[in-house]
Amino acid sequence: LAVGLGKFGSKKIGYILFFSHILSSFILSLIFRNKNCQSSKKTLSKLNSVDNFVLSTSQSATVTLNICSFVILFSVIINYLNFYSAKFPFLKWFALILEVTNAINLNRNILVISFLLGFGGICIWCQVLSVSAKIKINYPIFIISRIIHGFLSVVFTYFLLKIFGITLPAF
């Protein structure tokens, strides 16, 4: 909804993007169920309330720091790519797949934006993988599922735009 309102000034486009991604996620959950990760049997120790509070606070600070570190790292990389894209224009396209927020800000095509939201960007991939480090994720399936999610989202967005009669310029 935020992208529809913020980027296009339309709540309807926001809902179209939202439902496109819900449908894509549902289809991917059927396709890749039981294939993306193996559950690790984690034994829970019986800690008292104070120990649980301290442990959860400490772990949440670590996760927050990990996520922020990736955002900062990829922002620096994107700034370098933008600087050097004057000499090498193809670098702007590479920057699109690195971080989704910057990519959306640089784009006006709703179908490209829909793909980018489903794809997520490599920065988000790193955040997800760092948070889920204790889960044994099948990396090729994870990457393939992100790409498929992007393409499915484009297809659903396209058809929902047609159904609701919304036309947008391609560029």
Q: Please list the strands of the largest sheet in the order they lie side by side.
A: 1-2
The number of helices is: 8
- The percentage of residues in β strands lies in under 5%
Spatial separation of the terminal alpha carbons: 21 Å
What do these coordinates show?
This protein is mainly α and 171 residues long. 71% of the residues lie in helices and 2% in strands. The chain contains 8 helices and 2 strands, in the order ααβαααααβα. It has helices spanning 2-8, 11-31, 49-84, 90-96, 100-105, 110-119, 122-131, 139-163, and strands at 37-38, 136-137. It has a two-stranded antiparallel sheet. The longest helix has 36 residues, at 49-84. It is globular. The protein starts with a helix and ends in an 8-residue tail after the last helix. The relative contact order is 0.17.
Secondary-structure blueprint:
Blueprint lengths: L1 H7 L2 H21 L5 E2 L10 H36 L5 H7 L3 H6 L4 H10 L2 H10 L4 E2 L1 H25 L8
Antiparallel strand pairs: 1-2
Key attributes of the depicted protein:
two-stranded antiparallel ribbon; single chain; 2% strand; mainly alpha; 2 strands; 8 helices; 171 residues
Produce a short descriptive summary.
By secondary structure, the chain is mostly helical. It has helices at 2-8, 11-31, 49-84, 90-96, 100-105, 110-119, 122-131, 139-163; strands at residues 37-38, 136-137. The chain starts with a helix and ends in an 8-residue tail after the last helix.
